[in-house]
Amino acid sequence: MPHLRGRLAPTPTGYLHIGHARTFALAAARAGTAGFVMRIEDLDAPRCRPEYTAAALDDLRWLGLAWTEGPDVGGPHAPYAQSERTAWYLDTWRQLAAAGAIYPSPHSRRDVEAAATAPHAADDAEPIFPASLRPERWERAAAPGGVAWRFRVPDGRVIEFYDAVQGIVRRTAGVDFGDFVVWRRDDLAAYELAVVADDHAMEIAEVVRGADLLTSTARQILLYEALGWQPPAFCHAPLVCDAAGRRLAKRTAGLAIRELRAAGWSPEEVLTRGV
Ligand code: GLU
Fold it and tell me: Which of 15, 22, 41 has most ligand 1 atoms within 8 Å of its beta carbon, as the pocket-test mutant?
């Protein structure tokens, strides 16, 4: 195992399931003795609940995972809840705005669906944002100002990165994904911006997460570039499949770590037993 400083980044909108358990155990093993941050990704305030955060910490401890920095142990990179890190995200937004890398985009999801000509990318829920909705020019702004902001992707550029599990991964900007939201119109940082800002500030050397985020990694590499920051190494864990080879991502009923614990599974079984 490489001993690269890593992190756990659960989103407390529900109970963690067996897929999280396996990805997080891999993250812990790869971090080894290099330091391991617990970061709570609770930006989506209406959907996040403190009891899910408490349950996540409890489930992960029960699995035997230990972190060296986080909301309950402290450390030099506090705060560790994304809901408390807004000032840093705004700072990052300002850097991107000053670089001309992002633009205000008032279009609703419905506008985007209606104007989209390309089909949804295979592993992404969002339609590809059509270049026809890009503004020709926009006013310089000192603050996001209640409108969504998107990163302008370099159409046709192939983003290639090495992944410790998947090998070389390639995604093409404008084909696999389009201009993506970095700031939401409800004045919250969007996932891609918050994760890059935090992984950089927390000096994460390797990001370990599920393979469902491979396309996000390509987007995030563009953000690192625009910010002039060195990206971390990446390791995308295979998604857990059932005996028939179907991904469990959307079908996790009965597979929450809590439920498996209650059904008498041991930590070892949660991490290795077939489902
Ligand atoms: N918070 C995200 C999740 O629970 C993970 C984000 C990441 O690892 O970059 O899916």
Answer: 41
Whole-model pTM: value is 0.95
Q: Which helix (H) or strand (E) holds 194?
A: helix 191-201
Question: Looking at 142, 174, 196, which one is the last position of a domain?
Answer: 196
- Binding site membership of 209 for ligand 1 (Cβ less than 6 Å): yes
3-state DSSP call for residue 220?
Answer: helix
Q: Which of 46, 250, 253, 264 is catalytic?
A: 250
Kindly state whether residue 121 falls inside one of the protein's structural domains. yes
Is 156 catalytic? The answer is no
DSSP notation for 124-136: -SSPPPPGGGS-S
Question: What CATH number should be reported for the domain holding residue 27?
Answer: 3.40.50.620
Q: Residue 251: is its pLDDT beyond 90?
A: no
Query: Tokens at residue 68, please?
Result: 């060296």
d(CA 61, CA 55): 10
